[in-house]
């Protein structure tokens, strides 16, 4: 194997974290901000790109890391290495409520395509790049689903799904229509495109957007019930406006309660 072979265990229900066991000289890569805790003896380094091709030279590393800018990610990734004798453990946490999904890349032809913000961590040797779209429909109307990441190699990778995760096995020619933000990822044989919802009433009053993704088998698709963009939008809509005071939702008195409590002056 080119990628390091690591053991793992996932803990929790709604707010999960994954614990990885590193043998001596084994390492794992992760996006910044996902680290939770680690044993003493693990060394942390910041590197250009994903470190999958250590012999490609400085220019190659810069070009590889530069591609990550297209997905909105940092030029750098963090690598955690066990450099002493004995097994050591390191944990990475979910960024928001949902599930952590282990992806064994050898089961999917050494390649898996996922949302740009779904990647959590992976064994060193797994390449984290971008999946370029070859269709104009995706480019102009893809929204969240337009820029995808690709995970390549023969090791373990871990992605995060918001809310509840569904795994769909599509037979040849079978089609699944999904909100673009609800896609976690899919195998490389899946044909992915963007389709117009259609209908004047749907377009103006539907409230679900003008386009959805169509995924055609054969292959495996992972779907999430709570995309981060949807969660953030709901929080923004419910957040207090202006002076930071609440709107009285859920209160019988509502605004009258503010007057009684002295929070509102006339």
What does this structure look like?
This protein has helices at residues 57-67, 136-141, 200-205, 228-238, 255-261; strands spanning 7-11, 17-22, 27-30, 35-38, 42-48, 76-82, 88-93, 98-104, 111-115, 119-123, 127-131, 148-152, 156-162, 165-170, 175-178, 183-187, 191-196, 211-216, 219-224. The chain has one domain (7-238): 4-Layer Sandwich (Double-stranded beta-helix). The strands form four sheets. The chain has a six-stranded antiparallel β-sheet with strand order 5-6-3-10-13-8. By secondary structure, the protein is of the alpha+beta class. It is 15% helix and 40% strand.
Major sheet size, sense and barrel closure: 6 strands, antiparallel
CATH top level label: Alpha Beta
**In terms of per-residue confidence, which ranges show pLDDT below 50 for 5 or more consecutive residues?**
138-145, 199-208, 247-253
Number of domains: 1
Task: Give the helix tally.
Answer: 5
Just name the CATH architecture: 4-Layer Sandwich
Strand content: 35-45%
CATH topology, anyone?
Double-stranded beta-helix
Q: Distance between the terminal alpha carbons, to the nearest Å?
A: 72 Å
Strands, helices and their partners?
Layout: E1 7-11, E2 17-22, E3 27-30, E4 35-38, E5 42-48, H1 57-67, E6 76-82, E7 88-93, E8 98-104, E9 111-115, E10 119-123, E11 127-131, H2 136-141, E12 148-152, E13 156-162, E14 165-170, E15 175-178, E16 183-187, E17 191-196, H3 200-205, E18 211-216, E19 219-224, H4 228-238, H5 255-261
Antiparallel strand pairs: 1-2, 2-7, 3-6, 3-10, 4-7, 5-6, 8-13, 9-12, 9-16, 10-13, 11-12, 14-19, 15-18, 16-19, 17-18
